[in-house]
Amino acid sequence: MFEVRVAELETLARDQGLDFFPVSFEVVPQDIMTEVAAYGLPTRARHWSYGKVYQHQHLYGTMGLSKIYEIVLNSDPGLAFLLDSNPEIANLLVAAHVFGHVDFFKNNLCFADTNRRMINDAVAHALRIDAYIERYGLEVVEHLMDIGFALDRHTDPHKGLLRQPYPPRRVVEKEHVIRPYDDLMDTPTRSITYAVEGERLPPHPERDLLWFLITYAPLDAWQRDVLQIVREESYYFYPQFNTKIMNEGWASYWHAELFHLYDGVSPYEMIEFARLHAGVVNPGGRYSINPYYLGYTILVDIEKRWNQMHAAGETPLTGREKIFEVRRTEDDLSFLRNYLTPELVQRLNLFAYGSDCTHPPGKQCPQCQTVVITARERDAVVEALLAPRYNYGVPRIVIQEVLNNTLCLEHLDRTTTFLDRSYANNTLMYIAELWKHPVNILTNDEDGRETTLTARPNT
Amino acid sequence: MAQSSAYRKSSSALPWELRRRGLKDSLRHDQRVKEAIRKNLRELIAEEAIITSDGTKRVKIPLRYLDQYRFKYGQPSQGVGQGEGQPGDVLGQRGRDGSGPGDGQPGGQPGEHTYEVEVPLAELAQMMLEDLALPWLEAKPERQITTTSHRFTDVRRRGSLANLDKRRTLLENIKRNAARGVPAVGQFHDADLRYKVWDTYEQHQANAAVYMLMDVSGSMTTSKKYIAKSFFFWMVRFLQLKYQKVEMVFIAHDTEAQVVPEQDFFALSQGGGTRCSSAYQLALAHLQQHHPGERWNTYLFHFSDGDNLPDDNAVCKGLVEMLLTHCSMVGYGEIRYRDDASFYGWIGQTSSAPSSLQYALQGILHPRLLSVTITHKEELFQVLQTFLQPREMAHV
Fold first, then answer.
1. Distance between alpha carbon A12 and the CA centroid of its chain, in Å?
2. ipTM summary value
3. How much is the average pLDDT of B150-160?
4. Nearest CA to A53 among B97, B181, B109, B328?
5. CB distance A127–B15 less than 8 Å?
6. Residues of chain A found within 8 Å of residue B4, distances taken between Cβ atoms
C-alpha cells in the first residue's frame, strides 16, 4: 500500500535525523506535472514566456523524450507532485527524495528568510495581475512583466526582499573622540565634524535594480505592484538557484540512505530502485556534469572522510554529523570550494574546458571557436563549475549614481566578462522606459577599453 | 514530533480562471510568434532559410524577435567535463550560438537558444503577401480570372420550394406509401419533400500571364542573383496564393535569351555579357503568340544589374515601348550595390545614378512602366509592394 509505505519512509527519515515540514503529496497526470514545472509554482501570474516553456516541455513529454519525475516546492507544509503514471517504486523513491529536499528547505540557512507561503501568495499575485490585465490591457501588463523579468535576477540577497528607502538628505554631527597621544600628531583635529548623508542617490552602489526602480522611478502604483510581484517571486527562487548542486545531492543521498535501511520493498522493486537511482545520479555527459551526481558524490566523500578522521580522533564530528552541518551552513559556492577536493577532482576525472585565448573577453578570434581542455587543476575546475552560478547567473551590474536625472550603471566584472551588446542595449531601453530619462552603463568594449552604452526613453 | 504528511489524489480547489494557465499562455505565445513574424516581414522575406527551402514543406525560421532581453554574458562559455584528455586537447568547434561542443551545455535555462518556429510556407506567404495584388487587372472578354458558380451538392429535408427535388420527393413518397402497404404515389406529406442544396464554387481560369525575366550574365554576382531569385520566388508564391492558375513564363538571358522551366530558372547560374533586348525580343514574340493582349492580362518583370551593352539600350527602349502596348504592366528592377564597382558599365557611372539601361527606360513616360532600384536584400519587401500594389483602372 503506497500511503502506508510513504508513512513508513517518513518515520524512518525522521528517525535518521531529518527534520522536515509535513509534506503534502499530490498525484497528478503528466500535463499538470508539465504545467507546474513550466511555471515553477502551481499557480502563478500569467505570462507568455511560461507558455513557451510549457509548449516545449509538453512536446518533449508527449514524445517521451523527457519525463518529470518530481516537483517539490519550498513551503510549509511542503508540497510535492508525483506522476500518476509512474510505477509505485518510482514514486516511493521520489517521496524519499522529497523528504531530503524539504529537510534542506527547512534547515539550510539560505532558505531562512524565504516566504514559506509563496504558493498562496502566488495565487494572489496571479489574481492581481489578471485584474491589471483586465484594466490596462494584456500587452501593456505583459510588456511591463517583460521588463521585470529582464531585471529580476539582479537582486541583493543580503539586503533582502523588504527594504526601506535610503535615508533622506541630512547633516549629521560626528564626534571625534580624542584619544591619548593624538596631540603628538601634527594636524590637530576638530572634536566635532559635520557630514552630509543621503546626498548621493544611491548612497552606495545598488545591486537590487528592480528595488531601486520600484522605489525611485516615476511609476504608477499598479506598475510598482507588478514589478514587485516579479521581484518577490525572483527572491523566492534565488536560494534554490544558489544551492542546486547541494540540494539535489542531499536529496539523492537520502533516498539512497532510506532505501538502504527500509525493508518494506520486494527484491524485484529493489532492483528497479537501483536502476532508477543509477539514473538519477548518473555522471552526465563528457561535456556536462550531472549536479545530482556531483552533489551526491561530494556528500558521500565528506561522510567517509569525517568518519575516518573521527575514528582517528582528529574531529569530534562523525561523518553523519558533519554532513548535517554542511547542509545547514553551505551554499553551492562554499560547498564546492570547501569540499570538492583535489583527490575527488582527480577521481572523477574532471576537467575545465573553454577557449584558450588570452585577449579581452569580448574579442572574437578564430581560435575562440575551438574548444579545448583548459585545465585539470582543482581550482580551475571549481571556478569553471561556479562561473555560471555566481550572482544568480547574471553579470554583476550596479547602479552607481543618478547624474542630472541620468541613471548610471556599472558593469562590475567588465575586465573578465563581456556583455552581449544587443541584449544589453535592449535591456537598457527597458530601464530607460521605466526611468523616463537616459540610462547608461559603464562596461568594456571588445578591446578591453572602458566604454559607455546609453539608452534614451522613446518620447 | 511534527504531524505526519498528507497524501492526496485530488487537485486543490482553485478559482476556475486560474486553472490550466499553461494552455492559455502557450496560445498567447503562439500569437506572439505570429505577431513577431508579421512585424518582421521585411527581414524575413530575404531570409535564406525560407528561399532555399524546397517550397512545399514547413519552414523553420529563426525568431530573434521573441528574445527575452536581460544583461547576459557575451563571451564564449566555459564548462566542466569529465573523462580523459590533457590540457590543450581540442574537444571540438563551437556551434553558431557560441555554446559548448557536441551535446553542449545542459539545458538548465529553457529559451536560451535562438528560438526557431516552424511555419507552413503557405501560411507565411499568406501573411506576407495578403495585401498585394496584380495591378490594373482587367476583366477580359472571354475568360474571367475567377468565376463563381453554384452547384447542387446535397439533398435536405428543408429548403426553398423553388429548389424542390421532384424526383427524390416522388421516390420518398412511394417508399413511405409502400411501407404502409400501398405502393403508389399520392397523399404527399411534409416528410416526403426533398430539397436541393447548393455550394458556391470559385472557378479559377487563367487569363493572366506573368513573364519573369532574369539577367544571369557574368556581372550578376551570386548575391545579386539571390535578390532577383528571392523576388521571383515570392512572386511565384504570391501568384500561386492569389490566382492559382496564372500562367508563368520564365526567361533567363545573358546575350541570348531562352524560356526555361521553373525549377531550372531558380537554379540557373550562367556567365557572359548582357544584351537585355534579347529577353525583351523573346518575351514579345512569346507574348504575341501565346498571350495576346485582347484576351490576357500580361505582366512582365525584369531584374538586371543594368550592365547592358551600351548600343543595346536604344533597342531595349523600343521593345519595352512595344511591350507596354501589350502588357498590363512592365516592372524593371535594377539591383545595384552601393560599393559595386561596375566592370561593364560606362565610366563615370556611380552607384547613385541610374545605369544606362535604366536611364534609357526612364525616357519612356508611361504610367505602367515601373522602375525600381534595389541596393539591399532588405528592400525586397518594398519592391514587392511597389510592383504589386492594388491599382485601379482610374489611374491610367
1. 30
2. 0.88
3. 85
4. B109
5. yes
6. 7, 10, 22
